[in-house]
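Structure in, sequence out. Go:
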């Protein structure tokens, strides 16, 4: 798992615990389903697995854009928001585009959150498909 950070503040323990649940749940989903399915399948199953661990998960959360004093509702969508604290962007692709890590970092900045994950399920080893992103 890769981590990118520019912040010198430690991530609070509660966020790290949520992150552990997310990563463990991604491993369970990947072990059960393997690579090769649609992103939406992994989204539904990962949300279910995280919920089984007692955490709140929202799917396809709308993220409006505030620009020039105007709120644009046609903004972005977060694949998963766990405990209203940690963002997950899910992929099921052969090659991860580096811009997706920047996308997660932008989502973190726009929502004033600290921790996010980019998880690509279309890999043989889910650990190599998981990136931890810190704002």
């Amino acid at each position: 798992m890769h981590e990118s950070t520019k912040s010198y503040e430690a991530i609070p323990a509660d966020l790290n615990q949520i992150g552990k649940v997310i990563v463990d749940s991604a491993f369970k989903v990947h072990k059960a389903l393997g690579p090769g399915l649609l992103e939406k399948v992994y989204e539904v199953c990962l949300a279910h697995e995280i919920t089984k661990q007692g955490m709140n998960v929202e799917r396809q959360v709308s993220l409006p854009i505030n620009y020039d004093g105007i709120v644009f509702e046609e903004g972005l969508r977060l694949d998963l928001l766990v405990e209203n604290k940690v963002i997950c962007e899910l992929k099921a692709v052969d090659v991860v585009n580096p811009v997706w890590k920047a996308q997660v970092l932008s989502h973190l900045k726009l929502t004033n959150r600290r921790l996010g994950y980019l998880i690509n399920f279309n890999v043989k080893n889910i650990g190599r498909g998981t990136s931890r992103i810190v704002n």
